[in-house]
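User: My instructor asked us to take a sequence, write out its structure as tokens, and then describe one feature of it. I'm not sure where to start. Here is the sequence I was given:
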Amino acid sequence: MITDEIIENTKHRNDRFSKEIIKSKMDSSNYKCELSGLPVSEGHLAGDHWIPKEGGGESNIDNCIILNKILNEKRT
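Assistant: Let's start with the prediction itself. The structure tokens for your sequence are:
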């Protein structure tokens, strides 16, 4: 299942988002990158912290963003 793959590939595994948060964000983003609009068919998607944990960001739904994995890696 796509959502399970995304949960397993989400970046910060030691403080990751819950499965419920990832599923909810994937549904609301229509399985597309929230910045580029690229669908899951155009590359892997990942849930990441919009405000990094190092900057005080929390692992809650308001701080979760679904990103194309390539874009996500360039963002860090």
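For the description part of your assignment, you could build on this observation: The chain has a mean pLDDT of 83. Try explaining in your own words what that tells you about the chain.
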